[in-house]
User: Fold this.
Amino acid sequence: MCTSRCTSRCTSGAKGSRRWQKIPQRDDEDSPHAFTVSYVQRARRAAWRLRDVTFLCADAALCGRWVRTLTEQLSALAQRPRRLLVYINPLSGKRHGERIYRHKVAPLFSRANISTSVIVTQHANHARDHLRTEAELQNYDGVVCVGGDGMFSEVMHGLVLRTQRDQGRDHHHPDQDLAQTGLRIGIIPAGSTDCICFATVGANDPVTSSLHIIVGDCQPMDVCSVHHGDAFLRYSVSLLGYGFYGDVLSDSERRRWMGPARYDVSGVKKFLSHRYYEGTVSYLPASDVLGTPRDRAPCRTGCVVCQYNRPLEEEKEGKLKMEESHEGLAWRSVRGKFLAINAVSMSCACPRSPQGLSPAAHLADGTTDLILVRNSSRLAFLRHLLRHTSKDDQFDLGFVEVHRVRRFRFTPRFCQSDSELDLQELLQEKEQKEKEVAGSQARRILGQLCREHPACCRTPPCASCWNCDGEILPHADIQVRYTTLLLLFLPLLLLLAPLLLLLLAHST
Ligand SMILES: CCCCCCCCCCCCC/C=C/[C@@H](O)[C@H](CO)NC(=O)CCCCCCCCCCCCCCC
Ligand SMILES: Nc1ncnc2c1ncn2[C@@H]1O[C@H](COP(=O)(O)OP(=O)(O)OP(=O)(O)O)[C@@H](O)[C@H]1O
Ligand SMILES: [Ca+2]
Assistant:
């Protein structure tokens, strides 16, 4: 199809140097035969743009041969999607999802001869349930979600749960290895945080994401499974956050009408309330892996660290069994008061934090970076937060520690049975406080102690909740393990030959 009226012609310059020059479109009937090729041009900051170039041919036969050859070459690229299932969340972010798709994405898909089935979701979990039950997955080469991280999470859950059911695996069993999903997922960013898109593509731009899908390859991604005892809770690919990020999320839920700004309002509010939470974190460090959370080597698609660290399918059994066989030895425990416990399977880079919560976390290395922020002063915590908006090392603070782990579990203090906890210690703490302060202040402090331990005064415990990719988990006591790999529409090697980045060739 003719995509540009102004045609460029390759002419040999004075010194034989070949250069393009724009020549005005000749309207007379003997205008030569021409065909237009659309291609991807990399712009600044990981953005991709569509460009056209038109070639003039002396005669129709030559023109036809060029178009046929190019079209054959392009259709031979097997990894390119031909048919996509698209879910649009009309309420994501600033509620521009549908407009973004219709104006920016659909025209590109049609130019690349991609057929689409579009579903605008009518309620929460519509996409997840449709994927899990009704969708005829064999008719598609991939699924696209237009929305934010929550929409991606829905599509991911739908695909992963459907795959487990189809392959007869029980996802409730915490040690059950999951089957890989066959279909790739493409993300068109239209949400409030969009950290999954930003951390994988490097930009939150619908056109760039569309072009990645069109030239698509597949980029694997870590997925963590979260269980409470033997009950499956959710999968996570970005942030599992307890304490600060959990409180920010639960407080922001009632402010959805504010759109993305809801997180900043709740963020300031929860920063000022400065709550800490007691509990025990146990984790299984990832042994014999390349890289550390502080090596400042960011993960890019095609990352060699990921390829080295990720247990291959057949190896996975052995490797994890080996680590678990030394379970007693390898597991470590940390007990204390935490402002935030964050487990990130990827950097979680997003517009709010360009480097992300853990800048050197890898997309598909089979590990999760566990960040423990212990109780500290507001000023110290603010310094830690501020470093997320610059290139300073947010782990280089005394009250912050980070570990690269394959599994971890968390038990909030109020969950431990009385026998485990030294009640004596608690009562002594109370008597000590009673001696130190008198009157109303004592009541306030004792109130805080009591609230934190039902065994003391049988009052409902105060705890935070887990923020799992932007959704609230129903339990605070969880076990988390690295599990399967997802596949995203991302070209593995961004430096592929230009031909692969061509979109299509059409005679004009
Ligand atoms: C003073 C500036 C400090 C800036 C601190 C920036 C840290 C931002 C870190 C962003 C981490 C995003 C992790 C992504 C999680 C997603 O799976 C999830 C679903 O989309 N998004 C959220 O949970 C949404 C989480 C959004 C959290 C926003 C937190 C905003 C904190 C503001 C604190 C202000 C303190 C000011 C004191 C006067
Ligand atoms: N049609 C719908 N009506 C109501 N809720 C929906 C609908 N479709 C999806 N949802 C739910 O809306 C929630 C938010 O969607 P999404 O995450 O895409 O936007 P966001 O929260 O603004 O972005 P982010 O997660 O990046 O911050 C998701 O949990 C999703 O399950
Ligand atoms: Ca990872």
